[in-house]
Amino acid sequence: VDSTKPQIVDISIKNEDEKDGSSVWTNKPQTVIFDIDNVPGTGASKNSDIKSVTVVKGEDKETVEVTRVEGETAKYSFTASENDVYTVEVTDEAENVNTKNVTIDHIDMDEPAVPVVDVTGITQTGDWTSTAPTVKITKVVEEGAAPVTTWYSFKLEEGDEQVGFVSTSDSSYS
Predict the structure, then answer these.
(1) What's the pTM value of the predicted model, to 2 decimals?
(2) Residue 77: its H or E element
(3) Per-block average pLDDT, block size 10, for the chain (174 residues)?
(4) Which helix (H) or strand (E) holds 99?
(5) Exposed (0-12), middle (13-18) or buried (19+): which is 36, by Cβ within 10 Å?
(6) What are phi and psi of 121, to 5 degrees?
(7) How far is Cα 12 from Cα 148, in angstroms, rounded to an integer?
């Protein structure tokens, strides 16, 4: 009699560049790879072979295609195309069932929002200014979006060298 549930182990998430996708933001689908441990027991109780492996996405339980990794007997994968909770369900021939949730939360397919630029303090007479302007750059932060690092540059006149800087937060410059 087999009453042992198959185990879903060694879950890894990879993005297209083969980097760890569990904490690295990407704008591409991620590959989830996992092993099924259904090692035979000892004596009269031996674990059954795997009958089915399924993956569903989110509350709507949309079916996601699962494939066996080529050359492996107990390694499977699926593609996560968007942030959600994916539920892996494994059933063995003895009808023992086990599930495990995999949360994908580092996919951002949206273009970053354009920052708001506000220039103040310009006093101009003809082609000259008598005061340095203040430039305030405010990032538009979208909930659930990847952090944005933006390169800014200013060009005073045609042919002048550009002054550039990187900003990861709201900034004011004079």
Answers:
(1) 0.71
(2) strand 75-80
(3) 87 76 80 85 55 95 93 88 96 92 90 79 71 75 73 64 56 49
(4) strand 97-104
(5) buried
(6) 85, 20
(7) 25
